[in-house]
Give the backbone structure.
Amino acid sequence: MDTTDKNIKKVLSNYDYHFKLNIEDSIMDQIKIQKEYNIELSKARKNAKTGILLSVFFLIVYTIMIYLDFFNSMLGQMDFINMFVPSIFMFLLLIVIFIILTFGMSFLGTEVENERLLNSNEPVP
Amino acid sequence: MSAELDNSHIQSILGGDKEAFRYFVQAYKEMGYSIAISMVKDQNDAKDVVQNAFISAYKCLPSFRQDSKFSTWFYKIVVNESLKQLKRANRTIETSTFKDDIKDYTSEFNEAVEKLDLIDRNLKIDEVLDLMKPKEALVLKLHYLHEESILEMVRLTGFTKSNIKVLLHRARKSFLVLFIKFNN
């Protein structure tokens, strides 16, 4: 490095030291509202794994039932099955109510959070 | 700003500690701004570039391969964000280049630097860097201020090795001529 190079370095170094940037908090505010993609990804993977395991389980049960000719053997016992029909319908109804409530709660939660952010000075995601 | 310190903070962030990212903001915001301003030539645009670069860096941190320095990786993001900003803003930047000027300005420049005090020198540097071409200003800062090697600059900017050498030669010339011009 010759004298000219040293002088260029000197003037550039002195120049840069007079920067005063107040952007740290705004950057950190943006970082704090970022989603944790790793956690989201692992959650999605876990759900997919559970789904696959359940599907495999039901497929095995179905295959066994077909193999053992279970459906044909049930034909002679319709009275017994009819007795359980109302409870099966009630169970299905409960599942539908549960899904609607879960969706409704999460939707309401988002709305309440948006309302809170609108009324505060926090950055909106 | 050692590599070990950078890596330990990266591990903390990847482990879910968002506050650990403040270390990188504090350590690299000025260098990032220095690169951005030399390219976009506007203070507000440069701040936006640095902010976007930090957010991109945070999002892409899981894919950061630790075979290069964090600083090099981050400056590459700043350069890309600056180029995007230049394209978005679509402003005409008035610049000067002295590639055909064969006169040697080194002794004149060295005398001028010795004579000036710090405040005057800073004012002149602002004007000089504003008039330099974005790519020339970028390689000048990377070479003299960030002390990046030619190979690091190739990795950082995506320009070829010979392109960097030519840009650096022109940048040095432009810097000397413009500095002398503003001194007179």
Notes: Residues 78-125 of chain A form one domain. Chain A touches chain B through 30 residues (CB under 8 Å). The two ends of chain A are 49 Å apart (CA to CA).
